[in-house]
Every structure is written in structure tokens, then in C-alpha cells.
Automatic annotation (TrEMBL):
Similarity-based family: Belongs to the Mediator complex subunit 31 family.
Keyword Plastid among record annotations: no
Protein name (Swiss-Prot/TrEMBL): Mediator of RNA polymerase II transcription subunit 31
Swiss-Prot/TrEMBL GO biological process terms: regulation of DNA-templated transcription
Length: 115
């Protein structure tokens, strides 16, 4: 598997005008959205071995220095971890699970703002 990209540098190759680092950051942050996880499952991506391997590779975002670039580290890393489990990749097809995840995140956000 490829090694994680280095934090941004000017000389890094661009893909559609974006660095690999920027593209992976945007994608990994999108995993914080339960509706997006449901979309990935509905497109059958979460059952493709290559995509599952890519999700495992993205675990590097949970460690420094990459962690500091995440806008919503809590739900992003929680969902990335859950996506490592085959059962979760199947269960996220359920609208009930999606709604429960949304409600949990709203509750966590409200509690965080209160403290």
C-alpha cells in the first residue's frame, strides 16, 4: 500500500488542481456524514475489496501530524474506525442506523457546546 502523503508542499504533483493530501483530506472528512456513508453503501463501494483496503489505508489520519488537519475529528475518526468492520459496512444501508448516527452527533455537539 502507498505511504500516507506528506503534509502540503508546493512541489507536490496536482490531480485536477489538487494535491493528493487535499483530496484525501476532503474525502476522509466527508466520512463524518452518515448520509454520505449510506450513499457509499448504496453504490456498493463498501463491499469492494479495493475500496475497503483504501479505507484501511486512510487510518493514518488518526495519527499526528495528520490528525490536526481534521475539522471534525470525532465523527470523522469514529466512522473511519467503524468502516473497518464488515458488519457496519452492511448495516449503514439502514436508514434507521443513519438517523441514529445523526442524532448521536447532534447530541454530542450540543453537549460539547454546553461544557
Amino acid at each position: 500500500m502507498d505511504s500516507p502523503p506528506a503534509p502540503p508542499r508546493d512541489a507536490e504533483p496536482k490531480y485536477g488542481g489538487f494535491s493528493r493530501f487535499e483530496m484525501e483530506l476532503e474525502f476522509v472528512q466527508s466520512l463524518a456524514n452518515p448520509h454520505y456513508l449510506n450513499h457509499l453503501a448504496s453504490q456498493k463501494l463498501l463491499s469492494q475489496p479495493a475500496f475497503v483496503a483504501y479505507l484501511a489505508y486512510l487510518q493514518y489520519w488518526s495519527r499526528p501530524p495528520y490528525l490536526k488537519y481534521l475539522t471534525y475529528p470525532g465523527p470523522t475518526l469514529r466512522h473511519l474506525e467503524l468502516l473497518q468492520q464488515e458488519q457496519f459496512r452492511q448495516d449503514i444501508m439502514s436508514p434507521d442506523l443513519v438517523q441514529r448516527l445523526v442524532e448521536e452527533e447532534i447530541k454530542a455537539s450540543v453537549e460539547w457546546h454546553r461544557s
